[in-house]
Amino acid sequence: MNEKLTNSLFLLRISVALVLIMWTVDKFVNPGHAAAVFENFYFLPGMGGTILMAIAVIESVLILLFLVGRFKNITYLAILIIHAISTLTSLSKYLNPYEGYNLMFFAAWPMLAACYTLYVLRDQDTKLNF
Asked: How far apart are CA 40 and CA 60, in angstroms?
């Protein structure tokens, strides 16, 4: 197997997992912010602490499995879908890129491409899989 490819896919997997871990930790340490995100971007108002904690625990398990390269057909696809939804629900931010911090939302697109790349090349992503 091409070592450059396996190293690149490994680095993509680690970096995508890092971002997702930070979003998940936010649900644990700042549930008010997480609830506001669900309300403003996913149109799900009133997300209580218990529901957010359950989502955070499920996300944590999914991200851990993704990070160690387990159940790739499921975990890599789930990560791709979750991030695609997250990226697409921010449409209003892309339409006003220079308003507030909206320009930062554009970083979601290369990450979405990374998620897609990892999914389609999942069989070649073999470095440090457990």
From this structure: 22
Mean pLDDT of the chain: 95
The domain ranges of the chain are: 3-122
At 42, the amino acid letter reads Y
Does the pLDDT value for residue 47 go beyond 90? Answer: no
Distances (CA, A) of 41 to 4, 9, 54, 106: 37, 30, 19, 15
Cβ neighbors of 44 (< 8 A, separation 6 or more) are 38
CA distance 114 to 93: 21
Q: In the 8-state DSSP scheme, what is residue 90?
A: T
- The CA R_g of the chain, rounded to the nearest whole Å, is 16
